[in-house]
Design a protein that fits this description.
single chain, alpha+beta, Alpha-Beta Plaits, 4 strands, 31% strand
């Protein structure tokens, strides 16, 4: 049986990258292509507004949340989708040292 997981990507934009340009690209290119792969059930992007109860700056400005229905099939889907090479390259041009965390749902 395929393992369902959630992939959480934490990142800030690289210096000089325009937030509006990244957000437009995420809505119009990244989510439709990466979110349209067979192994991805849902793909959302969030922008941090603050740290609750604090004036501190959030450590990350952006969070991508991908609900994956087949974590083992994700790599195959990425390889089979010819546009993903350009999507990945563009994402790397925007994101400053992104952290990709694979999670397992345990409660709730």
């Amino acid at each position: 049986m395929a393992k369902k997981r959630t992939l959480i990507v934490l990142f800030n934009l690289k210096p000089g990258q325009d937030a509006a340009a990244y957000e437009k690209w995420a809505r119009e290119v990244d989510i439709p292509i990466a979110g349209g792969m067979k192994s991805v059930d849902e793909f959302k992007v969030y922008r941090a507004e603050g740290v609750m109860g604090s004036d501190a700056k959030p450590p990350y400005k952006y969070f991508e949340i991908l609900h994956i229905n087949d974590i083992d099939g994700l790599g195959k889907d990425i390889g089979a989708e010819p546009r993903m090479k350009d999507v990945a390259a563009k994402f790397q041009s925007f994101a400053d040292s992104p952290t990709f965390i694979v999670t397992e749902h345990i409660a709730g």
